[in-house]
Structure formats: structure tokens, C-alpha cells
Design goal:
By secondary structure, this protein is an alpha+beta fold. It contains eight helices and 17 strands.
Length: 294
């Protein structure tokens, strides 16, 4: 694969950076409540990325207490209708499809010339690997202009969750082309749900300046600079939390742009005909369907 000089340089300069310390600093900057600063930041980003504030529940830019509250703003329910068909799989986020397809021989396609190990992505958990081996994947990239809350593609019950520490390389298209195994190297939160379509994983991948991955049922994973590997197996506890979320319900959010990876078990579903890499999607729109009903 021939990379551009710009791609190579963008990747090269990221290796020596103190990713976690920079992201921790960003965590505090995004929560500064001094009105002149936070209002200037909000207006700068809003204008720079041409954000349509009329879609937000709160349309007064001055009403947001800090920049992060604007960045993770809620949208009006009618702004993102949820695919209503009983066999429909909804996009969990606004973003751009980076790649999608079949997991082949335990490998996931990242970009031209790069793939990575499903086992590595799932933190070496053999049981999870076996659930999704030869299944389907989709990688969706969120840019700074996108809505940053993450919603359920299907109704599901939480069965397992892993926090996997790692680097915080950018997940921009340029870096994805240049850094091998990027998504299996970056910090990530793996959430596994049981659905009517079979097992589904929603993987939240951290990136540089993503100062916190959150879920609606647990703490903000940006409140500490360094963390160890953690594993929660809700299916084997005597008093499980019984976290069940409906299709379209909010399940988490990014405090800056990043990437979501969806995994489905083999022969359970198929991606929507015509869905392809580099295609923009909106949260709630149909991106797949139950395979047996095609």
C-alpha cells in the first residue's frame, strides 16, 4: 500500500505524544464554565463544522454550562427517527462508515493494507471471540461535527462488558490508513448484549482528546488518567443488574469524536443492500436486517 507523505507524518508525530495526559487535560478544558471561554469555544466549533443547532433540544448556545455539554448535546426526538421495522438494525450513531463486512479467519478489515485480530480487539477473551468469529462487523467514525451520543441498534440485555486499556491514537481516516491494528491498540469499552438477533457487541473506541467514554449504567471512563483491564460478566452473577435497553435508547456517549465498532454473530444478520464504506449515516436509520427474513 502506498501512503501519502501527509498520512505518514500524521501517524509518526502521534507515537511519542503522551496520549492519556493530553486527554486528561482536555477533560478539564472541556468543562471550563467561565462564560467568555466556553461561549467562544462553542461558537468556534459550531461555525467551523457548520453544526445545525436547530436539531438540538437546547438551541441557545449560551445556555450550555460548558463546552462538553454542548458537544454531547441531546437532539430533539423527531430529529433522528428510529428504523421501525421489527427486522431492522438501526445505526447507533451519526458518522461515516469506515468499513463493514464479514470477519474472515478471525480478522477484521481496517483499511487498504491493514487488518487486525478479532481476539486482540476483544481483549483476548476466547469466549467472546468464538461468539463473533466469522460474523459481521461495521466500523463507524464520528467526526467533531457529528452527534456524540450512542444509541442501541437493537433491543438488548447487557451480558458482558470489558474495559481494555491502550493508546489513544487519532481514529481519523488518515491515521486509520497509516497505523496497523489501530482499533485493537487503542483504549476501548466492549459491551456485549443478547438480542433477538443473537449476540451483539457495541465497542466504543477511545481516541486522542476523547476525554471520557460513558455509558448510561456505569461511571465515566474518563475520570482517571490510567486504568487497568476490567471485566464484568453480568450473565454469571447471582444478582445481575438486568440492564435492558430498547432499540434507539441512549447507551453511552463520547466526550469527543471517536469510533464505534458493531459485531454480530455469524448468519444472524446482513448489512443493508448498498451500504458501503465512506457513506454517511445518521443515528436511527436502517443499516442492516435479520438475515433469515431477507
Amino acid at each position: 500500500m502506498s501512503l501519502s507523505l501527509r498520512d505518514r507524518l500524521q501517524a509518526l508525530i502521534q507515537h511519542p505524544l503522551p496520549h492519556h495526559l493530553l486527554s486528561r487535560l482536555m477533560y478539564y478544558i472541556m468543562r471550563i464554565e467561565w462564560r467568555p471561554f466556553k461561549n467562544a469555544m462553542i461558537r468556534l466549533i459550531s461555525n467551523r463544522f457548520n453544526i445545525d443547532i436547530t436539531l438540538a433540544q437546547e438551541q441557545d448556545l449560551n445556555a450550555y454550562p460548558h463546552f462538553n455539554s454542548f458537544f454531547t448535546r441531546a437532539l430533539r426526538p423527531e430529529a433522528r427517527p428510529i428504523a421501525a421495522g421489527i427486522n431492522d438494525i438501526a445505526s447507533p450513531v451519526d458518522g461515516t462508515v469506515s468499513q463493514l463486512g464479514t470477519i474472515e479467519n478471525g480478522r477484521i478489515f481496517q483499511a487498504k493494507g491493514h487488518d487486525y485480530s478479532l481476539m486482540a480487539l476483544l481483549g483476548g477473551q476466547r469466549s467472546l471471540h468464538d461468539l463473533f468469529a466469522d460474523g459481521e462487523f461495521a466500523t463507524i467514525y464520528l467526526s467533531p461535527r457529528d452527534y456524540h451520543r450512542i444509541h442501541m441498534p437493537l433491543t438488548g440485555t447487557l451480558k458482558e462488558m470489558l474495559y481494555i486499556p491502550g493508546r489513544l491514537f487519532s481514529v481519523s481516516p488518515a491515521t486509520t490508513r497509516a497505523i496497523p491494528g489501530l482499533f485493537a491498540r487503542n483504549e476501548r469499552l466492549v459491551t456485549v448484549f443478547e438480542t433477538e438477533f443473537g449476540p451483539m457487541a457495541v465497542i466504543l473506541v477511545g481516541a486522542i482528546f476523547v476525554a471520557g467514554i460513558e455509558t448510561v449504567w456505569t461511571e465515566n471512563f474518563g475520570n482517571r488518567t490510567f486504568r487497568h483491564f476490567q471485566h464484568w460478566d453480568y450473565s454469571n452473577t447471582t444478582t445481575p443488574p438486568n440492564i435492558k435497553l430498547e432499540k434507539g435508547a441512549e447507551m453511552g456517549r463520547f466526550n469527543m469524536g471517536s469510533t464505534v465498532i458493531l459485531l454480530f454473530a455469524n448468519r444472524q444478520m446482513a448489512w443493508k443492500t448498498g451500504l458501503h464504506s465512506e457513506q454517511a449515516v445518521q443515528m436511527g436509520e436502517q443499516i442492516g436486517e435479520r438475515l433469515e427474513n431477507r
